[in-house]
Write a structure and sequence with these properties.
With 209 residues, this protein is α+β, with helices and mostly antiparallel strands. 45% of the residues lie in helices and 21% in strands. The protein has 2 domains: 10-119, no CATH class; 137-195, SH3 type barrels, CATH 2.30.30.520. It has helices spanning 20-27, 50-66, 72-97, 102-119, 121-133, 180-184, 194-200, and strands at 10-13, 16-19, 33-37, 43-47, 144-147, 154-161, 165-169, 175-179, 188-191. α4 packs across α5 (121-133). The longest helix is centred in the middle third of the chain and has 26 residues, at 72-97. Residues 125-188 form the Mechanosensitive ion channel MscS domain. Its main location: membrane.
């Protein structure tokens, strides 16, 4: 997602005019991630922003090789957040090196952030929730969890995870999208396979004559 905030604020950097809306274009890039659900139930992601996607792949490979984050779903969330922070830091560093006055840029970015936060409050809450929940071992890929209570509870096996949704594969084969903000404010139960636990305890099913 690229946000353009046109204003009348402008300044010169070594003879070249810069406008706040053009700088905001670079400061606020966010990969527009589209989730494609195939007939097999597999979740694939495509990004319309190549640079953040490349940076995300670098962090994903780093976390994988070093073993810092072994779970693929948690690694995906951490890589995307890390890539966004690094991209922002690089842009601010380059502009500072060029001698660009950062005050108008910071003011414009603040206005843009407030506008985006108000218009996309659900997206922001899901993003923050994904960061908070990233350390939860119960939400690892392959775990069977139950989220919520009563008739509104959802149950399934964790298939994938990003900054917006947790994807659960239900027993019926459906792919359920659960917003991260709902998970953060709901009861999460990590379920274990009853048959496997019973066999581990030495219990065997009785064969009827």
């Amino acid at each position: 997602m690229v946000v353009v905030v046109p204003t009348v604020c402008s300044w010169n950097c070594e003879g070249f005019p810069f406008y706040s809306f053009s700088l905001t274009f670079f400061v606020l890039p966010w990969p527009c991630v589209h989730v494609n659900v195939k007939a097999s139930g597999r979740v694939t992601h495509t990004s319309s922003s190549k640079v953040p996607s490349a940076m995300k792949r670098i962090f994903n490979r780093f976390y994988d090789k070093t073993g810092l984050i072994s779970d693929p779903s948690r690694r995906s969330v951490a890589s995307r957040v890390s890539a966004t922070l690094v991209n922002g830091a690089v842009v601010f560093s380059v502009l500072g090196t060029l001698g660009v006055d950062m005050s108008p840029l910071i003011a414009t970015a603040g206005v843009a952030a407030a506008t985006i936060g108000f218009a996309c409050k659900d997206f922001g809450s899901n993003l923050v929730a994904s960061i908070v929940l990233n350390g939860q071992s119960s939400l690892r890929t392959g775990n069977t969890v139950s989220i919520g209570t009563g008739t509104g509870a959802v149950r399934g096996k964790v298939a994938d995870w990003d900054t917006r949704y947790l994807y659960l594969q239900s027993a019926e084969g459906h792919l359920v999208h659960v917003p991260n903000s709902i998970i953060l404010n709901s009861i999460v139960i990590l379920e274990k396979e009853v048959e496997d636990s019973a066999l581990d305890d030495g219990a065997r099913p009785q064969k009827r004559e």
